[in-house]
Structure formats: C-alpha cells, structure tokens
Design goal:
With about 100 residues, this protein is α+β, with helices and mostly antiparallel strands. It has 2 helices and 2 strands, in the order ββαα.
C-alpha cells in the first residue's frame, strides 16, 4: 500500500512515504514541527537562513525528546523500585521469619 502524503513542513513542500503512521498521527507530528519552527523563528529574528532555522528547530525538538525520554526513564525506575518494595512486603507477609 502506498501511504504517500504531500505536505509543507517548515514552509517547504515535501512528499513523504509514511510507514506505520496514520494520517492523524502524522498531522500531530506535522503540527509540532511547524509550531516549533514558528517559535524558533520568533525567538531568533536575526537568523534569516532557513537551514539554520531548520537546524535550530531540530535541536529544540530533540532537546525536548531527550527530556521526555529521561523523564520516562525516571518514572520507570521509580515504578520498578516501588514494585520491588511491594513484592518484598508481600513476601514478608506470606513467609514470616
């Protein structure tokens, strides 16, 4: 199945072949990129080179992705510690010393 979409990202017309992504998911990605692009342009009015703005946009999105991945890792670690503690407590209840 050809899942090709024509759109504009950061003002540039692009044709993408989307694998494993529905239109709704892609729309959210497209919106995030374009919103971040506009934020970067607003925050850096002295940068007029589109390539530099694109790089700053990628850096900003990647920085946020890294922050979220670290947060997710911290949450997972916290949940794992809590589950181990609950298992330990259950073991003590089931097998008193």
């Amino acid at each position: 199945m050809d899942n090709k979409i024509n759109t504009r990202i950061m003002g540039i017309p692009v044709s993408l072949n989307l694998e494993e992504m529905d239109d709704l998911s892609f729309s959210a990605v497209e919106r995030r990129i374009n919103d971040t692009w506009q934020e970067v342009k607003k925050d850096n009015p002295d940068v007029v080179d589109s390539w530099k703005t694109a790089i700053l946009t990628v850096v900003k999105i990647t920085k946020e992705l890294n922050r979220l991945e670290n947060l997710q890792g911290n949450i997972s670690d916290s949940h794992e510690r809590k589950m181990k503690e609950l298992i330990r407590q259950l073991d003590e209840v089931n097998y008193p010393n």
